[in-house]
Every structure is written in C-alpha cells, then in structure tokens.
Amino acid sequence: MSDLARQLEACFAAADRHVIRVPALVKGRLCSPPALEPEQLAPRSDTGAPENASAVSRIEGTWVIRRPLGGAAGEHWLLVTPSPDPRELIETDWQGLARSLYGLPFREIERFIGAVQEKVLSLRGRQWPQTVQAAASQRFLHGQPLDFWLDHLAELLDPEGLADMVDRQLGKPWASGQQFLDGWVGVDATIRRGYVARMAPAVFGNAAPVPRRLRAQVRAMPTRQLHITAGNAPVVPIVSFLYGLVTKGVLVVKSPAESNLLATMLALAMWATDPEHPVTRATSLVYWKGGDSRYEDVLFAPEAFDRLVVWGSPETVGSVRARAPKAKTIFLNPRYGLSLIGRAAFPDHMQEVAMRGSTDTLIANQLACWSSLVHYVEGDEATALAYCQALQQALARWDEHAPNVLSRATLGQVRLLRRTAFLEGTWFTNGTPPAISSAVVYLREPFDLSVHPTCRLVVVRRLDRLEQIFPFLNSSISTIGVYPTRALIEVRDGCAAAGVSNLFPLGECEGLFAGMPHDGMQILGELVNWTTSMIDE
Amino acid sequence: MVSRDTDDPFLKDILALHANLLRAAQEWGQGATLGAEVENLRRTALCLNHQRYCRLIPRYRTLAAGQNLLAAVDPDTIVNELMFTTDLFKSYQPAWLSGGDFVALTDWLSSLFSAPIAASLDGVTDISEWRTRLRAAGVFVTYSSGTSGRMSFVPRDQMTWNALRRNSTAYADRSWFAAAPGQRPVFDCLVAGPQGDGTGIQGAGAGLASWATRSHFLFDGAPTGAKGPDAYERAIAFIRGSREAERRLLIFGVPFQVRRLCDQVLARCGPLPLASGSMVVTGGGWKSFAGERIPRHQLEELIASAFGIARTQSVDGYSTAELSCTLIGCAEGAYHVPPLMEAVVLDEALMGNIGAEGTGILGFLDPFALSYPGFIITGDLGKLRSGGCGCGRTGWFIDGEIRRAPGQELRGCGGVMASVTA
After folding, report:
1. pLDDT digits (tens, 9 = 90+) for A46-59
2. Closest residue in chain A to residue B402, using alpha carbons only
3. How far is Cα A268 from Cα A4, in angstroms, rounded to an integer?
C-alpha cells in the first residue's frame, strides 16, 4: 500500500465510532490532530441547540466539525482537524522565495501538477467500508462518493488546461503568460523620459548625466496569498488553490467545514508527490472557524500577505473589509444563475427545455454561482404550469440518478417557505413528504430571492415578453442560460450591460474553457504583481 | 366596523373550552397538578381553532388548502404542517410602511385576520393613527420591532384582545388580584417603561397597572420638562409612597429598564427596601439592548440589593407578541408553561410532536388566538420538559436558558447576497 493510501486510510481509522481525523498541510508538513477519544470530542449537551444540529467547536486545540448522523437525535459524525499556530502560516523570507518558488520555471509547476494528478487517480477504485462512504459522501462531500470527487479533483489538476489558463489570462500578443511568470519580458515600446530628468541639463549643465537608451521589461511577480473560501460548492477551495498555484503563489487556503475532506485529499496527494517540492513547501491547506480572532487577527495583519482572495457571504466580506482594510483583496461574492426560456420552446420542445433547464439547475447541486435558481418562461400561465410539470419530471429523473438527501435544516427551510414567502405558490414536489428530494414552485408575483434555499428547488416565473426579465437583472447574476439561440443573441447585450457575466445556451451553463474570466475578472492578473523594470539596451 | 362572519359554528365550543382552561389555569396557579383531561381540552380547542381558521383567515386557509388539510386534523398535523413563524406578522412589503400605504397594509393585515377589516383610513399618515382607526373598527393591533428591525403587527379582535389582557392574571398569585366586591386589589404597580399599549410588553404593563390601587409609569410624560433624572426621582418618590402606605409594590419592566432603575436607585439613594411581599417581574428579553445584558442571577442580585427583596420575589417572564399569556420564570431557572397554551419543540426540519420532550426550536399553540393563526414557531431555542420542578410547579416547562436560534448563514460562490426581487 502506498504512503498516500495509508495516510488516507488513517483518516478513517475511527470511522466505526463516527470520527474522521484529517491532517492539515502546513508549508509541506502534514500536521495530524491529537488522538482524542469520541467522548472528549462530544459537544456540550446543554447548549440548547437542536440535538441534530450541525456545529463547529474547538476542543483541546483541535477543530471538531459536527454533522448529524441522520438517524437518532444526538448522534453525529465528527470531522477532526488540527488547529495550527497561525503565525506558522505566514512567509516572510522574500529572498528565499525569489530564489526558490518564484524562480521555478512554469514547466516544473506543470510537471508537479501532473504528478499530483497521478497520485489522486491512484486512489480511485478502492473498496472503502460502507460507513466511510456514507460518512464521507453524505456528511462531508455533498452527497457524492469518494471516487466522484477524486475524478473531479484529477480533472481540475489538468496541467495542460492550467497552462492554457495562464497563457490566456497573463499573456499578451508578444509573449505567453508563462514567460511573464518565469522572467522579465521585454516590451516593444518607446520610453518617454521623465520630466525632471529632461530638466537636468538646465540644472547641471554639461555635467548632467547623458540620456540612456533604455528597454522596458515587465514581469508577473508571484505573491503571498491568503484564500478564504466558501462551502457551498466543494470545488471552490480547489479552484481558488489552483488560481494561486499557477501564479506560483505562496498559498494559505482556508477550507470551509463542508469541503475540508476534499482539501485533505489534495493535501495528501501533494505531500505524497513530494513533501520537499517548493510548491508543497509553499502551500498550507488548513481549516479554522471563520471569524476566529486568534487566526484572523494574525493573518489579516498588514503585510502578512500580498493578496487576499475572499469567497463568501456579506458577513465574511464585510468582516475582511473591516479587519484588513489595506490588503489588496479580491472579493468573489456569492452569485447565482437564471434560465430564460422563450415561447418558441412551447409546446414542441417542452421536454427538451425542461431537461436543459434542470441540467443548469443541478450544477453543483444548485450550490454554485452558475446554478439556475429561477426559470423565467415566456408564455401564458397554462404554459408556465405545464413547464413546471415537465421540469418536476426532469428533476425526478435526476433524483433517481443522483439522490438528493436534504439536511434536516434545509428541509426545515423548504417547509418554512411553504408557509411564508412561497405560501401563495403552486408547488410540484418529488420525493415522499416530508422528505422531498426536489421541487418546482410557480410564483405569480415577484419575490425576494434571498429566501431561496438552493437545494434542488426551482422557482418558475412567467413573462409576457423576454425583455421583461431586464428589471430583475443585477450584477449578482453570474450566468443566464437562454433558449433558443436567437433569443440569446437578442438579449445578451442587455443582460451583459446589467452586469451578468456569462450568457450561454440553456443547458450549457457549466461550460468553461481554460482562462475563462471569473466574475467579470481575469483573476490570475489580479494575483500577480505586475512589476516593471528598465535596463540599458 | 368588522363585519364578523355570522356563520361561525366552532366559536361557541371554543369559548366553552376557554372557560374550562381558565379555571384549570387558576388551579394550576395555586399549585394544583393538572390531569390529562386539561391537555385534552386544550388540544380539542386547538383542533377546533384549525377548522375555524380555515373558514375565516385567508392566509391560513391558503396554507391548509395547499396541503389538502382543510378538514379536521389531529394536533400533530397542526404541529408539523400548519405552524407559522413570527415572520407571518412581518410579511408585508416594507415599502407600504415606509411609503405610508396604509390601505395596502390593511389589506395585508386582513389576510391574517378572521374577518375583512373595514376601517376608515382617510388621512392616515402614521402607525399610531392607523392603529387608532383599526381599533375603532374592532381590530386591536400590537406591534413589535423584534430583533430583525422589521416591525411585526398582530391583529386581535375584541375577544383575543381581552384574552391578552386577562390570561396571565388567571394563574398569577391570586392574592395580588383578589379584591372585595367594588374595590380594587391592594397593591401598587410601577412600570419601568413608557405608558402605552402598542407593543406587547407595554400592553402587559398597562394591563397590570389597570388592576393596581396606585400605578406609575417610569416614563410617564409628566410635564416637568427634564427627562431622565426627573423620571427616576418621580419613580423613587412613588416607591417611597408605597413603602409609607405599607402597600406591596409590583415593579414590572423589560430587563434593561429594570437594571437601569436599580442602578439609578442605588446611585441616588442607596438601597430602597420595598414593603413586605413586593415583587419585581421582568419580561421581553434584552433584544437590541444586548450590550447591557447581564446574567439572570446578577440581575436578581442587583434587584435584591436595590429593593431588599428575596431572589424568589424576582421573576422573569417569557412570551412573544403573538401569544396571549406568559411563561413564568422560577428560581430553579425554569420557565413554566401555563396550561392555557401548548408548547412544542421542533427539530431543524420543523418537525415535532405534541407532548414530546426535547431540545430544539420552541413553538407554541395558543387556543386563545381567535383572530389570527395562533400556531407559532418562535426564533428561540430551549429544552422542553414536563413533570415537577423544584419550585413546586408541575406541568410543562422550559428547562434553563432560552436563546435565539442562529440565523441561516449564506456561504459560498452560489447564493444571493442580499434581498433582491426576482
């Protein structure tokens, strides 16, 4: 058995007692949590929280993430992860970095990524005990089995794709992105001498320095990056990590509780590939409870990092803005997707658009910023209701293929909506009440989207004309899937003007290409210091 | 005037059950242990209320119809499918309030109320005038700002309004409210707050004051000009008057106001012992004054040092603006549920059972809420138990602290940052 497999198995050694112990990667070093007994990890029973609630607590210097078992009240799975000293995470040896990681040719980064990808793939197909599969997938991996995430992780660790991303986002017509990362790239430009330098002869006469013929050079200098990632889509910490990795960044990535297990798999694969590799030694994949001042006071201090990347809620964003006002920060706010279906779809293409609409809804099980939350249908009410039924059937097919188990809290949210904001809606549900698996709600009136539970529930609204969607658009909308193509071409300028980032054909909203802009930004360009030098020709 | 639906076949039976429950509450207040028959009475009333709500309250009817529950149902079905959160009473468009659209606001209120509201709204420009007009039409509206900042409005008809003012006295210490025919009960009442009946807590204070021999409101609007210090001086004079008359005093207020009163008394004149048998009753929680919050035992110590009363004479109550009675806190740290209403505990999926103990989200089913849906899920967490308590009371109680339930946190790249119309 390989070291990597042994390490991963060790994580699940106490699975029969509902405990998963995962290490953190701190600058290439694997830190394991102390071997506390489940009794020592038990939350206080007198907190007044519902007995089957999720929670995070810090016990004996260890983070304990509690998730309900799904059966009897009071039983939980516990994910235990270490709580490293935040001061250890900060890198201050710039000169060392310039000589090691920053000086590494990009092709070596590519090679390393390929080697990590192979390690990840080597873990596929293992026969994990049922308890491990159940715990991992249902409580800590968003309902998908381990192999699904290993495949997904390997797919993201695509050396060629990542190299393309670098070239598209950092490259210029005269040089590739990799060249800018690897060294100083000449710029074919006329250099205008400075105003004061031109005055120098008037001041110093013949003694003034003779003007020199200079050549400009630019380099995409790597940075020290702190990534605070969010938990809705498990790949978010991985994607954020990859943004940093391909810019040769010194990385601290904070995973959310929901995705910590996936980040652990990545950490183990990197460590198993080469614990001494400059990339591994410059990477920390850790967890702390968001807002913990013991961590954030240290990590948000001035000069601790060159870049902050923050994915998350308004509270997270507001907290970071307040606590790290001077840091150059890239905020990736929560966004959402919509679907827009023109009357040309009905009645002949009803089933097709329902399938396409459901496909865009199911992206990351409706938790990603591309996932469609609301479907706008051009037509009369009878058409909209018929579409709801077709969509309900399409969602039922997805439920069969990829069962959707709502947490008790999410189920509570949905049940509450039926009594509050969606009380006047017409409901179409799948599953056995009260445990619904998916739902469609037709609402006749505009509603407050902030109540949407994002759990395989689609709100359908009716429009007389497609253009009536414009008042509902804003810059928080990531993606709109449109049917048919003619309608997409007609509305896309208006949608883009409102701040929508992606306008795709219905059913294709998860499509991407290497180097595609994210949230209207070329992120890699934001993660490097564009540094200029001038030297004698 | 409210054009009450004359076809109200359930009301007579419900009112008869109310009378029986009030009698049971009196016995319970005097220390009796109640039998299962009282629970049956209460649950029967709740089931009749369901059928009555289905006939008379549009929003409730919509909810029940959407789940094919318009016919008679059992109490567990009510608990699991037909309870509303307190958000129901805030479910208006904020623009109606900020824009002064009291017609729209009234239409919305009608959808929660047991009859169409036919009030004259000409010239109404503020909430105070709106409430006055509604009151003239037989609709008593209490409001609460809550912790979310959005005001909630609870519409009561005359019967439900009477229940709000009467029910908590049914199980209170009878010696406070007993009086010879034609005479007032012998006690003074100091309300540590403003006079009014707009909010639930003001209504409770006004209700208690109305029983007293003498009453005084800390912020009484007396025309002496200055605020603050004068108000406390007048309150201290009132307290001294009770002491000199050897009449026991009931001090009532929200915790932060009682805390401030104690601080002021101690700062201005030192300990001010009350007449024997006096009590201090708090209710309403700390809400937006959480910064002044001190643990209950510290507040009790402060009250004891300011007024020289035993800690057992200092009682905290728990209620919400949507309920008709108050849970009584005791020295054992429990909040006792009077037999006038049913307490339930719900899990995160908002599922629960009548008559089950447990820890979770607290819900209450109030059979005396005749004019609006009285099946309420609070935003509070607690541990519900039944049996005996060290204080001597029996029945259902919340064991220990009652805390606010955490809100749903939005996390991730997918999600909606803020309120946005779609």
Report:
1. 444 455 566 788 88
2. A48
3. 6
